[in-house]
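Interim report, section 4.2 (structural modelling).
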Amino acid sequence: MNTAKRDIFQAVADPTRRAILTLLALQVMTPNALAEHFNMSRQAVSKHIGVLAQAHAVKLEYRGREIHYHINAKKMQEIDQWMATFRNLWDDKFGQLDEVLKDI
Amino acid sequence: MNTAKRDIFQAVADPTRRAILTLLALQVMTPNALAEHFNMSRQAVSKHIGVLAQAHAVKLEYRGREIHYHINAKKMQEIDQWMATFRNLWDDKFGQLDEVLKDI
DNA sequence: TATAAACGCAACCATTTGGTTGCGCAAATT
DNA sequence: AATTTGCGCAACCAAATGGTTGCGTTTATA
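Predicted structure of the assembly:
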């Protein structure tokens, strides 16, 4: 079990890992099932899953020799919380744009 | 002017760049003004700004020898759009948790 | 005109990343 | 019991990253 801390933002920085998270948002999956969706070695996918696990973006459920990976929605929420800083900006800035366009 | 494409998720993967974006959400700033907030060389901060520019997370406004960096809220919205996949999950999963706790 | 300030380019370096292949162990299947 | 399956560990490699220092060009100031 790896206990190294990993940043959730670093975890989602890679497109492969984002795709993994998107798949897990739909259903619980095993490493081999996930690997079938990518054109890279099973080990490469396993490495990405490892990064997601370190960031606590996924939760593991061991069933014999199989591991079922679940999305950890709570962890994903940290991204949403950071985004709060900008949310009011695009609302406001789009409002400003509308204002400018109205004057043309 | 760099035109290399850069992923917005890769841009925010680094804590220094997230801090830069948070500062720019508050006010327009120049590279030197931004550099004052960090314990690293001015050039290191400039490099980070370069990554953000490549990802179109910031917009540049040249004023003589100074560059004023603005947040590009529209680009930040891409992160929010990807997050939509998970938003209903934590609402739903928290709801399930409430359901379980209610039975205790 | 001389000097200072703003700030990116380039080279360098250590570390990290993202992929591959080979291997080994435990669980499941035959 | 033998074989297969699931899947992580380790080593390797090329590329990318994140920091530093030195330098040069353009703009602003004295």
